[in-house]
Specification:
Length: about 120
């Protein structure tokens, strides 16, 4: 099968649309007034699910599905760029402790989520 660029772009775009809408919904429904919990939640969930799916099913997926899911859905759903800008914002608002906790919780939580996803993949 020919994996031409327009097909790959269409798969990434369709997955990205879904991931972006899911990211918006989480951010909309999770209160972030004191701390960026919505960003934290999508990063943890995204890292966990991406790792689980990658280690469990990626060998059984077509290339189009891989581009759709990993680059599109998970790429748009997780928000490392938002995480970094929120951390810088907290830093410049002299919220050093919150900025530090944001880095520790996102970094550590995403790593733990990835380990959990790998563990879950071994159970499948």
């Amino acid at each position: 099968m020919n994996w031409d660029m327009p097909t790959v772009i269409a798969c990434v775009a369709a997955g990205g649309a879904i991931g972006a809408v899911l990211r918006y919904l989480v951010g909309h429904y999770v209160c972030t007034s004191e701390f960026p919990w919505g960003t934290f939640l999508v990063n943890i969930v995204g890292c966990t699910l991406l790792t689980f799916v990658a280690f469990s099913f990626s060998g059984y997926m077509s290339k189009n599905t891989v581009f759709f899911l990993f680059t599109g859905v998970f790429g748009a759903f997780t928000t490392m760029s938002t995480f970094t800008s929120e951390t810088v914002y907290l830093f410049y608002e002299n919220e050093m402790l919150r900025a530090a906790w944001n880095v520790v919780l996102n970094g550590g939580g995403c790593l733990l989520g990835a380990f959990a996803g790998r563990f879950l993949a071994l159970l499948v």
